Amino acid sequence: MPEFFHVLPPAEAYVKFEALLKPIQRSEKVATKDALGRVLATEMNSPSDLPSFPRSSMDGYAVRASDTYGASESLPASLKVMGEILMGQASSQRISSGEAVKVHTGGMVPHGADAVAMLENTQQVDSLILEVLRPVAVGENVIQVGEDVRKGQSLIPKGHMLRPQDIGGLLALGITEVTVFAKLRVAIISTGDEIVPPEVTPGPAQVRDINTYTLSGLIQQAGGVPSLVGIIPDNYAALREALAKGLEDNDAVIISAGSSVSARDITAKAIDSLGKPGILVHGVSIRPGKPTVLALIGDKPVFGLPGNPVSAMVTFRLFVRPTIYRMSNCINPPRVAAFEARLARNIASAAGREDYVPVRLERKDGELWAEPVFGKSNLIYSLVRADGLVQVPLDKTGIAAGELVIVEMF
What is the pTM assigned to this prediction? Predict the structure, then answer.
């Protein structure tokens, strides 16, 4: 089997792959308070008006706006104080022309009142007489019934990934349970005769498993559930069995393969042996990460990621993360934070290939600078020391020091 069939630009490779993806349909009910980051499986509509009663947005006095027209410090409007509405207290009283009731921020505005005069724009002559020093308009400092949302109004669409403010908004309406799509289960298979578990002291020519746990964290960040299959030797039969098991129990599989040609060939052969359509992309024009494999077995995606940690992380960001969001039915995946910075050193590249270079951000003389963290793709600490990645586009042969670049943050 050739090392690469057709090396594709990353955007083209993902479009070809994404076109065949089928989102999962499993759903479950969860407590709203525990639903942060979950994707709604149904549209949410409001069961009631919010607020359900007129509320004051200021500390002050509930009044009839017409009673304050023309009021000033030299000629204040004089009103009779009819009492006070305490927080959490419902009021059945109705104020008439020439009357005022003391209210607090968030408290109920009594019937008959159509505005609230701010406390600092009033002065109380005695316990019964209030002077208003500034006129208020109808509706001023009052939150009306249903001003936030109306009963029956669409609140949040199906496919929306719930944010903290969404949780608060749903609970404000008494929606304590929501139906969400199940989390995508992603199996991780780490391969290599030289790989040992982190708790084992490596022997000569052995290294501890890094990718299983880096990828596991990345899956969780994207809202998926990692399933650790374990370390599989560079053996076709063993890999095929592990892949079949991973597919049976999960929605997607990542194979973190060795960097040798033979390891990649074993991965490709095992994937293609288990079903159609099989391998869709075998080789992407990026550095690091050229030997990436994108495949589908039935409806389940399989990713063959390079074994080097930097390559694995770059290719995960490009291909696996958007797949998790897509298959989770998410219509508003969180955007990667990005900052503009000035490049501190030259980055060399080659036309026709996208390069991704880890950088560390530093602020010098009030300006943000991106310092490249150069290192081979098998060096995990080039990522540990970095804050994000700078992309060199396909059509460029590099970026010169001093140029402005976009840093996509980790």
Answer: 0.87
